[in-house]
Amino acid sequence: MRSNAVNADLSEILPEELETEVKELAEISMGTEISEDDLENVIYLCDQVISISEYRSQLYDYLKNRMSAIAPNLTTMVGELVGARLIAHAGSLMNLAKHPASTVQILGAEKALFRALKTKHDTPKYGLIYHASLIGQAAPKYKGKISRVLAAKAALSIRVDALGDKDTPEIGTENRLKVEERLRQLEGRQRLTLSGSGKGKAATPKYKGPAVPVAMYNTATDSTLPSGKKSKLEKKEKKKEKAARPAEDEDEAVAEEEGVRLGARAVGLSGGRENKLARL
Predict the structure, then answer these.
(1) Once rounded to an integer, what is the mean pLDDT over residues 190-198?
(2) Which of 1, 74, 70 is nearest to 32 (CA)?
(3) Which of 41, 147, 175, 273 could share a disulfide with 126, CB 3.0–4.6 Å?
(4) How many whole angstroms separate alpha carbon 75 and alpha carbon 121?
(5) For residues 61-86, average pLDDT
(6) Contacts of 149 (CB under 8 A, 6+ apart)
(7) How is the chain split among helix, strand and coil, in percent rounded to 5?
(8) By C-alpha distance, which of 125, 127, 144 is closest to 182?
(9) Angle at 171 between CA 166 and CA 175, to 5 degrees
(10) What are the backbone angles phi and psi of residue 200, rounded to the nearest 5°?
């Protein structure tokens, strides 16, 4: 009560300086007086809040133990609460293991998915998996990519939990490290600035080796044959060229003769036609 505010002990919840200030203000406050019944109801409500908070902590401990026993890899990937929500939404762990990674990614956002398909808008990027800690750590522009990677690795962890023989979260730990590495890669990546032609600058400059003077290059080292053998090969090639030339000349002469014959024949035919026309 306001009348007992001066004698009340508030040292457990308030520091000394603030305790004296609260007591002084309580005496001159403009609040309405409360009765004994109101005070009892307030105390009863406080007891309910305390009991509900204790029950919530007990439920969390129970859920944590059950999830670590049933789905340790999924728990390592997305946490106890998100993993339990996914299993409850699918119906069972085996049903969840039958879903592909794309379905696991948008599980819980079915209404938004069908609305987007009906209106031909963009489909949702995440559902229940959005509340995972890995997606919460990502920047807003990378949440979609991280949710896709996380859903793919979580789908593998779910199948290991449902069909595997081991109860240790080895696969989940390994996949979580891969997702974290992907997140660091996305956040530490340098963005390329686009120019007018649509090409970005190269990350590293082009390598240019030492310039070799032209005078230092010796063309004689191109062939590994000795000079004597090289001259013999050149002579053989020249003889082959000379032997091939007469045959080419003969072919050209024959082609010319055939062309002359065909031309004369064409001229004769045209002359015969002209004579016939003149006679007519």
Answers:
(1) 44
(2) 1
(3) 147
(4) 33
(5) 92
(6) 178, 179, 182
(7) 70, 0, 30
(8) 144
(9) 165
(10) -95, 165
Whole-angstrom distance, CA of residue 37 vs CA of residue 69:
48
Task: For residue 91, give the amino acid letter.
Answer: G
255-to-154, 243, 244, 260 alpha-carbon distances in Å: 80, 20, 17, 9
Supply the angle between the helices 36-70 and 80-90 in degrees, to the nearest 10: 80
Residue listed under structure tokens 């995440």: 126
The contacts of residue 178 (CB under 8 Å, 6+ apart) are: 149, 153
Instruction: Give the span between the Cα atoms of 93 and 71, in whole angstroms.
Output: 8
Beta bridge partners of 261: none
Distance in angstroms (rounded) separating the CA atoms of residues 240 and 236 = 6
- CA torsion sign for 77, 79, 80, 82 is negative
Taking a C-beta distance cutoff of 8 angstroms, is the pair 162, 94 a contact? yes
Q: What does 172-240 look like in DSSP terms, one character per residue?
A: HHHHHHHHHHHHHHHHHPPPPPB-TTS-BPPSSPPP-PPPPPSTT--GGGG--S-HHHHHHHHHHHHHH
3-state secondary structure of 194: strand
Q: Measured between alpha carbons, how far is 131 from 121 in angstroms, rounded to an integer?
A: 23
pTM: 0.56
* Residue whose pair of structure tokens reads 């293991």 in the numeric block: 97
The pLDDT, as a whole number, for residue 191 is 47
C-beta neighbour count of 77 within 10 angstroms: 29
Residue 192: per-residue pLDDT: 41
b (16+ CB within 10 A) / e for 137-149: ebeeebbeebbbb
What's the pLDDT at 88?
93
